[in-house]
Amino acid sequence: MIGYLKGTILHFESDGILLLVDNIGYEVFLNSQMLEKVMSQNTNDDMISLHIYYHQTERQPKPVLIGFETLEDKQFFQIFITVAAIGPMKAIKAMTRTVGEIAMAIEKKDVTFLTGLSGIGKRTAEKIIATLHGKVERFVEKIDHTNAINPDEIPVEIPNISNQVSDVLIEQLGHSHASAKRMIYEAFERKPEISTPEELFDEIFQEKR
Hints:
Layout: E1 4-13, E2 16-21, E3 24-29, H1 32-41, E4 47-55, E5 64-68, H2 71-80, H3 88-94, H4 99-107, H5 111-114, H6 122-132, H7 137-140, H8 161-171, H9 177-190, H10 197-208
Parallel strand pairs: 3-5
Antiparallel strand pairs: 1-2, 1-4, 2-3, 4-5
């Protein structure tokens, strides 16, 4: 069983890397965020260490190696694939946001966020919440708050149309007050010319997609 690999990147592939370890090349699948990070930060001469999830079954006799930056990310993945109809390959493709963000969405029962993940429809999102709610709280703290916006510091100049949008985000979609204020603020940062509630909604959910 392969649980950890350290080597150099022989070349990049569309959904992972070929990792050279002691003259042996291992095909390792990575989620899209991890792949982008590795491509931007590593060259073919850099050493990279990955925690490996090894998958092989009678139906899947060819071994599949999936790489994770941390042991915690791998542990979350192993919990994630306990959801019915989410196998390892579907799970790794769905992890287009950080583990902390996905865990928080599960704990908040945020169906809208989860349906924004690749390959996850509404029914699957509801299955994820039903199966994992209350089981992934420890991963929420993995969210990187380094550049997070303090909701209490949101400028008062933001147009009043935000109040209407905030009410919908909180009362109908289940977001917290802080989360709603943060999404609205970030939408105005990206597109300050927003002038109607409809435009504000479009910008918020365009970003989530």
